[in-house]
Amino acid sequence: xxxxxxxxxxxxxxxxxxxxxxxxxxxxxxxxxxxxxxxxxxxxxxxxxxxxxxxxxxxxxxxxxxxxxxxxxxxxxxxxxxxxxxxxxxxxxxxxxxxxxxxxxxxxxxxxxxxxxxxxxxxxxxxxxxxxxxxxxxxxxxxxxxxxxxxxxxxxxxxxxxxxxxxxxxxxxxxxxxxxxxxxxxxxxxxxxxxxxxxxxxxxxxxxxxxxxxxxxxxxxxxxxxxx
Length: 228
What we know:
The protein is an alpha+beta fold and 228 residues long. 40% of the residues lie in helices and 9% in strands. The chain contains 9 helices and 6 strands, in the order H-H-H-H-H-H-H-H-E-E-E-E-H-E-E. The protein has helices spanning 2-15, 20-24, 39-50, 63-75, 86-97, 112-124, 145-155, 165-168, 200-206; strands spanning 173-174, 180-184, 189-193, 196-198, 210-211, 221-224. Strands 1-6-2-3-4-5 form a 6-stranded antiparallel beta sheet, sandwiched between helices. A hairpin with a 4-residue loop joins strand 2 and strand 3 (189-193).
């Protein structure tokens, strides 16, 4: 009986020790899903958060992390199941490292197309929001979210006709750009140009579409102009 008790205590103690592969598994060495835990989960959570998918890095793959993974999968047009496969983990790692360019880049180092996007965006930065504005004609009294982005891109010769936010979901190339990144879903579109956000939601607070603060990219497709 004494031996049985000691064996039971030992078994309970062993049960408190996390499995080694759950604690020290190399990043992107296994598929992560709800219930997983360990250092690789924490790294994934940190990369998701740095990529704009607000995620607490606690090393536990719970419902909140699964939601972030699903949002990432939607944005990257991958199979949406909330499970982070090794290829997806490597992709979010890459995106986390592709930070938007800071504003202190010397003007002469900014590509001409990006300078033209900024100049065009400046022209309408303080124009009022108007639903459908910028879609019927380039010069308008007001612009909605996608109309604003369209106008700025048109100024650099990158867009011949305006797109709505749904159109921007598949425009250009997937992922973040080095200089210009467009975020779009079925109801909204905005972009980040050389480290600054150009977004109609900013004008409601500050009177200009330009903002130095970022917002969560959760639920958005992430695109960029080819080469930028």
